[in-house]
Amino acid sequence: MLAAMLYGPYQLHLEQVPKPELGEGEALIRITACGICPSDVRLYTGQARLPAGKVPFLAGHEWAGEVVDVRISGPIPSAIRPGSRVAACWLSSCGECEFCRRGYPNYCVRDNRARVTGGFAEYGKAPVTSLWEIPTSLPYEEAVFAEPLACCVNGQERSSITPRDDVLVIGAGPVGLLHAQLARAQGARVIVCDLAAERLEIARGLGIEETVHIGDTGSAGYRVAAQQLREMTEGKGPDKVIVAANSVGVIDWALDVVAPCGVINVFAGLYPESRLDVDFNVVHYKQVTITGSHDFNHRHFDAAVNLLVRGQVKVRKLISHVVSLSKLEEGFVAVAERRGMKVVVSMNGGESAHPA
Ligand SMILES: [Zn+2]
Ligand SMILES: [Zn+2]
Known about the structure:
Elements: E1 2-8, E2 11-16, E3 26-35, H1 38-45, E4 57-58, E5 63-71, E6 85-88, H2 98-101, E7 123-127, E8 131-133, H3 140-143, H4 146-158, E9 166-170, H5 174-185, E10 189-194, H6 197-205, E11 211-213, H7 219-232, E12 240-243, H8 248-257, E13 263-266, H9 280-285, E14 289-292, H10 298-309, E15 319-323, H11 328-336, E16 342-346
Parallel strand pairs: 9-10, 9-12, 10-11, 12-13, 13-14, 15-16
Antiparallel strand pairs: 1-2, 1-4, 3-5, 3-7, 3-16, 5-6, 6-8
Bound molecules: zinc ion (2 copies).
């Protein structure tokens, strides 16, 4: 099968490799679509290191496809069979370690990614317990959002979002707009801010009417935006702030604008690694909670699939590019240069017409 193997920074080779061999309880899937995650791009550019002992590395963890083979010899019943349309969930935790037992399989101390192969290839394999069946009403290129959306479901849960909240999402990229729709689906009021006016336009196209354009990156731009947010929230500021932007400065700004008793979720990883001088009297006197979230568990993934199937979170307008596997490198560059929004690799040119 064809697979995009990564040997090191900017060394991506499309080559023939053997199809994955199935173990007990596993399925072989003909991959039809795989989303490009910024974390894949960091592996490509060398900002993040390839996992030791796994070079060349096959990346891609947001994938969907059609089951072609299943190996189950025991009495385990499974709805997954050849022909099933599925979204793959890379998380396959041990279920036994302390973190798994406490409900945090995303922190499983054993290798929780080992059993699901990378998605930038023609075929992949996964345990049937890591596959979610999807209806034909959900195109594969949209189903790949299940993984990033599951991360957002986890993030919102850790931010304790309720219908009573004014939620501010900082950053109107693909992930920010997943968060915005998710908070709205939970009944909260949502405001989105960004430096890019065209991204806020996309937010409004998704029905997120309240947007704040940060006019310039200098402190004046943020001061004006903070004032606007206070006016929109009866002077108190947003109750919950989701930071979906790669900037340590906006975390500081979030501490300034968040309402008393509010929560700030540091959702985006910061590259390069960044530090912040925090006035902890603000944390103390405003009774602010600063939390983070990373990855998800199967319950979050299940919620994400259902939100997509029911159309409570819409992702079609978040896809700016659909590329073929042979154009993967161009897709990586588009994400690295922040051109457009989400880039999805489609193995068969896409189920539905979309600009390449
Ligand atoms: Zn991802
Ligand atoms: Zn575990």
